[in-house]
TrEMBL record:
Protein name: Pectinesterase
Hydrolase as UniProt keyword: yes
EC number: 3.1.1.11
NCBIfam families for the chain: pec_lyase
Amino acid sequence: MRVFTSLVCFLFFQAVQSQILDKSWRDIITNSSAEWYASAEAREIAENVLLYQRDIGGWPKNIQMQEVLSTKEKQELRELQSTAKGVTTDNGATFQEMLFLSKIHEQQPDERYRVAFLKALDYLLEAQYPNGGWPQFYPLKKGYATHITYNDDSMVNILNVLKEVKDNSGYYSIQPPKETLERVKKAFDKGVSCILQTQYVQDGILTGWCAQHDEVTLEPAMGRAYELPSLSGKESAKIVLLLMSIENPSIAVMESVASAHAWLQRVKIEGLREVRTYDDEGKVINKVIVQDEEAPTLWARFMELENNRPFFCDRDGIKKYSLDEIGAERRNGYGWYTDEPKEVLKTYDRWVKAHDVIEKLKAKTAAPKDPFNVTVAKDGTGDYSSIQDAINNAKSFPYERITITIKNGIYKEKVRIYEWNTHINLIGESKEQTIITFDDYFDKMAIGRNSTFHTPTLSIDADDVLVKNLTIENSAGEVGQAVALAINSNRVAIVNCNLLGNQDTVYASGNGKQYFKDCFIEGTTDFIFGNSTAFFENCEIHSKKDSYITAASTGEMADFGFVFKNCKLTAAENVDEVYLGRPWRIYAQTVFTDSDMGDHILPVGWDNWSKPEAEKTAFYAEYKNRGKGFAPERRVSWSKQLKKSQAKKYNLKNILGEHKKSSKKEWYETL
């Protein structure tokens, strides 16, 4: 009888074990009852979970933790624990194991489960980038895995863990100590800030998110060969749901959700159904898209950044616009469509009502308390979350200066200070972390031969403007003409700024006078060009390519063109053939004085741009320069080396001043 009972128990255990093995690891975690978590079987699986955890705190992905391990396999896992091999948050890894440990600890308290959970929490906090994002793998792996990863909801999963912990919601049975809890709160806020900053701006309007964003620039980034930079219907859905779960959302969060909801409404697909064919084992062997007016709403996984057009891609990385053009392996093995945004649409109206969103967003447009001192902040804590909004609401032709303070953040927007927005100060919180960026370029604008002049990230058409402590960037890359900063007005000062781009970075134009002080200016070809009178003082001029620094188009009657004083000319690695300038127009004037020239500057110094007549009309000169790139005896014969008496006139007051014969304060002395 005893043998029979033992046999029955053994068979029962085998049956239950078989049921568990038939489930996926994800199903076991999410669909098992509290009673099961109190079982000996759950405890046995927990031993596997502890074995798979690396000392750094995370777990590898795609592991079926419930599978029985041999003695040899257990020993191999012990040896791997001191490494970080395969540790990730991709495909649900780490956060799933944390949930399992929390559930079993609630039913069977064990100090080892608590320690492992908290170690994993520390891992998540450690893996976060300073900008608030998370990579796919940490420690970092080479390639696309370093990008901020929304793909397969990786970052959203992390933030949901942090949210439940910081809110002490009871979802997790294990709570961290007070010090860790403070870190969790800060990490969550930084993560939300990153989400707000990576929301894609299309024609000036917030849309959705991409599966990957560059960890530095926050721009859309490429994943695998068939995962081109694109807007994602799938990943955007979970991001919006996370933002909607925030208890007291900021104005910036409300704007983000409202904009994403409107975008999801615009890009939904009606009348198409995905039809799948399965084999005897339940594996998808074919997918086709058919017309069906009764089909539920779908969204594309990949949409073009410019126009939201759905596309598909095989392992060759070539865009296709029909799923049937994709080979069977990728067509059948990848999720090209999703219905996940339906949850956003289902809950949006309730969320709007619960948080009084419409009224709060209306109130946000009200005039600030002090119209002469306003703040722009991406997180909604300022008077505006958009720089252009702040400018658009500024008084026209004011008698007093208007100071727009811009908090740290990446502002992807084209900004224009119009002619009537005079006397504006645009002041960043810090040069390194307050970034205005956009990616327009000549071929993208495609509006004719003057497309270059429509590409600037920041355009200044107003007089008496100060721009300080900012990075102004055209992020289009090496794609031809792409302006970062364009100035078309008078008495404009650019102080302590990074001006970043490639060809045509800075367009210094107009009949006015402009002052660049303590700036870093980089580019490839003609990256400082135009016809203004511009004084560059204590600036670093950085060449990224063998080409030309300046392309002045000074007017025939102008007293001065571009003047560089106490500047440092540097170059990227392997750049060693750079000209100081060439004449865009034949009366170009460019002078370098007291500047340090690297050995990338060619001995001849200047080029005539295949315009022999410019050798008689252009004025290219130097005085008291230094460095390996300063070779006065080898410069082209038609350039000048100034005498001391000639160089005296190349001073700030003489070039930019308006009260040269009086002691009255000059416009640039009040900066």
